[in-house]
Amino acid sequence: MLANASHPLIDGLIGDLLDCKAAARLAENFGGTIDHLHGNAIARNLRIYQQGGWLISSMGEVRNRADLVILVGEELEATHPRLQEKLFESPERLHASAPPAIHQLGHDCLDLLSVVRARLADKPVQSDITGSDELITQLSASVYPVFVIGCLPEQSAELIIRTCIGLVRDINETRRAALLILGSGEGDTTAQLGTTWNNGFGIRTSHARGFPEQDLEMHAGSRLLESGEADLLVWISSLSTSPPPQVRQSTLVFGHPAMVFTHGPPDIFLPVGVPGIQRAGYLHRADGLRMVPLHKLVDSTLPGSITLCEHLISQEPRTC
Amino acid sequence: MLTRLKGASIYDPVNNLNGVCGDIWIRDEYICEAPDSPEKADVTVDLEGRILMAGAIDIHSHIAGGNVNNARLLLPEQHMAERGAFSTLPFSAAKWSAHDTGYRYAEMGFTTVVEPAVLPINAAQAHAEFADIPIIDTAGLAIVGNDDFLLRMLRQREEQSRINDYLAWTLHATQCLGVKVINAGGATAFKFNQRQLLLDDEVPMYGMTSRQILNAVQRAVVQLGIRHPVHVHCNNLGIPGNVNTALDTIEAADGLPMHLAHVQFYGYGNDGASGFSSGARALADAIMKNSNITVDIGQVLFGQTVTISGDVMRQFDARHIASPNKWVVWEGEDGGGGIVPFRYRPKNFVNALQWAIGLELFLLIDDPWRVFFTTDHPNGAPFTAYPELFRLLMDRDYRNQWLDRINAKSADISLLPHLDREYDLNEIAIMTRAAPARLLGLDDRGHLAAGAIADIAVYRPQADKAAMFGKAELVFKNGALVVEEGKVIRSVQGKTHAVSPEFDRRIETTIGDYFDRYHLMKMDHYKLDPQHLLETLGSELVFH
Fold first, then answer.
1. DSSP A215-252
2. Domains of chain A, residue spans
3. What is the ipTM of this complex?
4. What is the band of A151 on the pLDDT scale with cuts at 50, 70, 90?
5. Partner of B26 at 20 to 30 A CA spacing, among A144, B117, B134, B287?
6. Which residue of A has its CA nearest to B517?
7. If you count residue pairs, one on A and one on B, with CB atoms under 8 Å apart, how many are there?
């Protein structure tokens, strides 16, 4: 199937570093494109990053130093269930005596953030907004405020994040502040960082023309599947039992051994070892600064996806 | 297998071979003595008229880790792949990837490269990237000097032996070859909103100076017997007048071994109408007078690049000169860093003088055992520009042609027109082979005596030294032929080098308790385990 495909899409990437390396190798060898389950969110943040950069902090720094945390986005506990316990409730902190004040902002915080930014920069605002005084007072009294950004609705995410980046930059001209961008989980950080040092760019990189090219729009997995430009879906998911999307293309799955196929089985299902249970591996912490070692806890005969991919590549090596 | 490399002009300064015509014999991975009879060779390679040296060693090049990888992500436009034929080697078309790094270094005859800035919390990623760099051997230097645990020990005036234990533990936890100090206390001071930290300024909250941190780390390295001296990125990088900081740091070394990194960025006076001048003469004189000091240059070469540094204070300060206009500053446990793209322009007064100052230092420091060949990749220039630097050092006429093309005022005030020195092949072999191996404590390389690993580069003599050193005719890595006619023909797995100094394990009780109180993970989970690195990443560690 891989050899006959003219443009395989390697997607999902709900796995660890070794799964992501396997995906990058497969894409290179078979002239395919890689993307992640949360490719839209990764690509949106990456586009912002590539256009202007940002000033960010780490989870450890927030835990030890932040005296004000502005939570941007609701339901952070769904994607990061231990965030509260690990970052905001630590009994001992390096450079702060008390836990940080938490200021929760909802999904509709764009206007508030914009007004706060304008007012802090002494720019005129047409009309003030409820809550801006409070946030400005908190920011002004804080030594190290951190904007912690979680999942946001697609239509407003980009502007909210850009406004937070601008606010943080403005504040840092005279004082300190930072962002902490947490992403969507499910291996998104590892998929982005781990593929980058292999193919140079990260996800949404295609090898269809024989060399890596990143395009955050054109190489979106969902677009390639809908348009039919991709003629094979390779779904890699060693950490999640959720099935791949139902598509008209043939589907090859390197999947969690307990994967449940609600829409019927794929053309080929290759169960693989689960990192952190059946094999060792590495997964990035949500801030990307640290790679967490995963250990093998039980013996298993299941191969890792990278072993299978290397085997497939050796059967059908690139020749040109 | 027994291979005879026959009849090359051999440059092996350790063994006093300065262009002597002779044979080198390789048995499997190592250089061996010549057998009784040349007929015993399984393979003979005729190298008459060629120049043969040990594989080159780069002591300071940012090739791996989060800061480097995030720079790749920030600047896709700087490494767009080109359409064209691609080989069957993995990711050979992926520019600035880990693979590309290995291939490009190997093509020039480099076989060992040191990443000088591994932030301990990011060490696993640095090793993961090392493992994906083909052919060349790698090593990391662990960043210390902004780590809260160390600063606390200093604040509490702990005994030096405890500090030694902690530094040895840091190397044990990060699997690095040595330690690096970046603007000691600077990242910490920046966390407290300080925008500059001088050598004798106190670090907020901790009550000790940058100098005291540096001295404590330096003593620890000496007392632990770590071969590579403390690797220092001084305070005040890039600021006019900072040559005084470098001179003060040399004095602070107090006769003990110290390596000063990318000194070109500290060769700046503040004389003249523009307030920017060359301090190269004073710096070179001080280096020549203090035999305990080694330096690498961090040469600037013209063109687009990106600055990547753990000096978060300096990188934040440089945000206004980002070109293209985008920059990243980040902070993390025990450090931080920044990514600022930059284009060095020959007609710009400051950039042209930076270029000249680097070359002045190379030419004024008349001891190739103590001055090292670097561009601080990619901060002064990407390492792929090394061929140009070889030519500038070895070809006075070429240098003078450049003097006519750079900013006229910079050329006017530069010492370069008065410096006639040209590096010869023996000096190049010292600076890029023998001396780096000695400085890093890697006794098995940098020379061609029997027992050394068979890392060998063969060049075709050419008047154009850029062409000569840009594409090695042959390169052997651990005895395997990996490059022919400047092209990689085979990829092999490199190894990663580290040290493992002894320490009193009781310190782990204190460190473990510290992790429980202030970190997001347990100490045992933070330490890198060589067996785990091998099983997951294929990373093979070699301890020295």
1. -TTTT-HHHHHHHT---EEEEEESS--PPPPP-SSEEE
2. 8-38+187-315, 45-181
3. 0.97
4. confident
5. B134
6. A92
7. 179
